[in-house]
Amino acid sequence: MPPSRSVPAAGTLPWRVVDGELQVLLVHRPRYDDWSWAKGKLDPGEDYAIAAARETFEETDFMVRLGRPLPDARYQILERDHTFAVKSVRYWASTITGGSGKPRNEIDKVAWMSPTQAHAALDYARDRDQLLALVAMHRAGELDTWPLIIVRHATALPRSKWSQKDWLRPLDPDGQARAEALVPVLTAYGPLRAVSSSSVRCRDTLAPYARAGKTALKLRDSLSEEVFDKNPERALKTVRKVIRRGRPTALCSHRPLLPAILGQLLEVAADADVAALLQESIELGMDKGEAIVCHLSGTGAGAKIVAAERHTP
């Protein structure tokens, strides 16, 4: 009988360029005496991206910023109760943002290797799929990316239950919980800037991340509904400025603005998959508290979105 249980897991391929040569980080597990990628099982209810960054840190003591998604891996494993299950692993390219690189948590060695060395050292053929994809991205000049994360504000008190000006309307308890839940999701991608509509419900959606990451929260009237109604071009100008600067950024706004903002990003979509994700989000809308992670290569007129991901509540 085929295994009926799926075991979700996530991991990363940290990479760097030294003297013009690409290197990737492998880990060695003494229990299996094998070389592979840093990875591990998801905790109950955990997001894949959160788990990928967490597991990398727990095994290598390196903090990472997730970059482009890489091919998944699916394979059969024998559990401790002697039953079989299918392990499904999602991977991301990643860059080091801190930490010591001291192996821990069932890892006794970590090593930076060239792609050729890594290809030879990896003990499982399935692990070479991620390596080959990463190398292809590097050769195409599309591995070094930065994230622009578009966030729709979380759920707020209904207009019918709010008597003051609409821009002052706050998040409801569910919205506050979602704002807190977004913190580790955003942290996995490491935006250095948090830019929000000046409306309270948008501000408070990003405020927990700004506090946790010690990142200044920049408020922009141009991203509010009130200003958009009068002058839609101001919101698009703000988005273009973010793309021109090229710094990892989380940007929070409202439902009426999102089709225009996503439409602006659609103009720099690099392939059909990215275009389809953005087009679907334009047509069907984003959920409250949803985040769309756009991975951009380049800045300004040379910027293009080479991958995109959705994180729904």
UniProtKB/TrEMBL annotation:
<protein>
    <submittedName>
        <fullName>NUDIX hydrolase</fullName>
    </submittedName>
</protein>
<dbReference type="InterPro" id="IPR015797">
    <property type="entry name" value="NUDIX_hydrolase-like_dom_sf"/>
</dbReference>
<dbReference type="InterPro" id="IPR020084">
    <property type="entry name" value="NUDIX_hydrolase_CS"/>
</dbReference>
<keyword id="KW-0378">Hydrolase</keyword>
<dbReference type="GO" id="GO:0016787">
    <property type="term" value="F:hydrolase activity"/>
</dbReference>
<dbReference type="Pfam" id="PF00293">
    <property type="entry name" value="NUDIX"/>
</dbReference>
<dbReference type="InterPro" id="IPR013078">
    <property type="entry name" value="His_Pase_superF_clade-1"/>
</dbReference>
<dbReference type="InterPro" id="IPR029033">
    <property type="entry name" value="His_PPase_superfam"/>
</dbReference>
<dbReference type="Pfam" id="PF00300">
    <property type="entry name" value="His_Phos_1"/>
</dbReference>
<dbReference type="InterPro" id="IPR051325">
    <property type="entry name" value="Nudix_hydrolase_domain"/>
</dbReference>
<feature type="domain" description="Nudix hydrolase">
    <location>
        <begin position="5"/>
        <end position="135"/>
    </location>
</feature>
<dbReference type="InterPro" id="IPR000086">
    <property type="entry name" value="NUDIX_hydrolase_dom"/>
</dbReference>
